[in-house]
Amino acid sequence: MKESILVIGSNGQIGTELVTELRKIYGEDVVIACDIRRPDYDIKNAGPFEFVNVLEKEILNNTFKKYKPTQVYLLAALLSATGEQNPKLAWDLNMNGLLNILDLAIEYQTYKVYWPSSIAAFGVNSPKLNTPQYCIMDPNTVYGISKLAGERWCEYYFQKYGLDVRSIRYPGLISWKAAPGGGTTDYAIHIFHDALKKGSYTSFLSAETKLPMMYMDDAIRGTIELMDSPADRISIRSSYNFAGTSFTPEDLATEIRKHIPGFELKYQENDPRQAIASSWPQSIDDKQARQDWNWKPEFNLTKITEDMLGNLKR
Ligand code: AKB
């Protein structure tokens, strides 16, 4: 089968790295980067790019007609913090964007669809430690609500129409190549930039706020491993729990001080993102992903810190 892969939301934190990786595997012309914004020259020069707004059905339809994608990765979304600033837009983009893609995937017989969920789908009454795959889920951000509803839609399209949709509940993702997109876990990226530039950082999350986190290299590898797995190995069609490591701002500062001894971490109180973070799990039980498609993370906090600082310095 000749592959044709659409990555929608290709200029974001995940898309930027996923497009590069998929192009290495499948070839440059096979992977079509799609976004509403002009891409980095890197992406544009390496392969095809289309301006696509996931809410504009006609343009989307033309893109599916032109490329007849065998795989679609839908990454366009408003995250937890920016979503709270514009809840209706977040719902519209996160939900109707997904439904548009699921419908077109059926119409154009797309072989596989990838859509990311998040730890934000959990809520205040979900168990905090080793949060299991199945438990109470009562998210209180519009982003989390859209992720939980999206998970149900993914399973619905799989059950009802046989669409091969696959999904992962991402933790906070840490990376240096592209800027993060307005999430609650973004502090864990800003801290590295400020540590190198200023030798200090003011965290909007409190010292003891522990959250599940993952390095982007692991996230991209895990995503592609899930998509490459035989369909009969995929036992979860809503979204898989997916874990890397977990840490607090204070843990991260301690690790950074091993490289930048005088690094100072200060705290700013009363940031609305604190309530979001406090409603999320501290650690995730991802045994189903490990069992079904052999998921195993490679980056712990020490490796993440070394790699982030090394790359940002360069
Ligand atoms: C966010 O903080 O909103 C995201 C996420 C955990 O999904 N990084």
Which descriptors would you attach to this protein?
314 residues; alpha/beta; Rossmann fold; UDP-galactose 4-epimerase, domain 1; 2 domains; three-stranded parallel beta sheet; binds 2-amino-3-ketobutyric acid
What does this structure look like?
The protein has 314 residues and is α/β, with parallel strands linked by helices. It folds into 2 domains: 5-171 and 214-241, Rossmann fold, CATH 3.40.50; 175-213 and 245-284 and 299-313, UDP-galactose 4-epimerase, domain 1, CATH 3.90.25. Helix content is 44%, strand content 15%. It has helices at 13-26, 41-46, 57-67, 80-85, 87-107, 142-161, 187-197, 216-228, 249-257, 272-278, 287-293, 301-313; strands at residues 5-8, 31-35, 49-51, 71-74, 112-114, 117-118, 165-166, 168-170, 172-174, 200-203, 211-215, 240-241, 245-247, 264-267. Strands 3-2-1-4-5-7 form a 6-stranded parallel sheet, with helices on both faces. Strands 6-8-12 form a 3-stranded parallel sheet. Strand 2, helix 2 (41-46) and strand 3 form a beta-alpha-beta unit. The N and C termini lie far apart (41 Å). The model has no long low-confidence stretch (mean pLDDT 96). The structure holds 2-amino-3-ketobutyric acid. 2-amino-3-ketobutyric acid (AKB) binds at residues 79-80, 118-120, 143, 170, 172, 183-185.
